[in-house]
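EI: anyone free to look at a 252-residue chain?
SC: sure, send it
EI:
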Amino acid sequence: MLALQWIDRAKKVMDTIEASQLENIRKAAAAMADSIGAGRWVHTFGCGHATIPVEEMYPRIGGFVGFHPIIELPLSFFTHIVGDMGIHQFLFLERTEGYGREIMKSYDFDSRDCMWIFSHSGINNLNVDVALESKKRGMTVIAYGSAEASRVKQPRHSSGKSLFEVADIVVDSCAPLEDAAVSLKHHVDKVGPVSTLAFVTTVWLTIITVAEILEERGVKLFIHPSHNVGDDTAMDRLHEALEEYRRKVKLL
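SC: here you go
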């Protein structure tokens, strides 16, 4: 059964993350904890399917205030596939140098902030733009993606650098560069990507570590509670978390 090959490969990716990336995850989490502990933000950014880890972390049951998602609609809402906001337009925007600089103009960043960027290959211009502009503003840039495997790919940005070369801290998702992991007998292309599973795995390893660090420092966490099966005060805690997010987002 081919589906079991996908499970096997997915498990190996998770095992490799555990075996090789915990130290880097701890470094990333420490930088993020510094930002949140200072009353600032960890901004999160991705394009295409790399927006999924951004959407996974907050607002999300078990997540907490401190992570600010930056998702441009044309870079995420391409489920029309063809026609308006289709795949062709998305690929063009992702590779267009300068678009990331324009996105950055819409926010008030602070040197105490982190910019957390997700990209499987790290070679597209938009992500490199955002990383370079973040560094100009004094932010710590943290990149998650298939860093080691992507070394064979030529960056498209005029700087000559990939996202992983620009970033201050890199966590390797350990997913294969081609992403899809299962071969079929009569087709050239594989099926069954594993990068999203890898991203979500590294997200929660990181955020749980951030929570651990902040709790050790005595910082109150505004956690998004389970409002479906929680106790009678769950909605009160949800309201408290959203009000804290509302207060902080005014800084932007």
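EI: The mean pLDDT is 95.
SC: 👍
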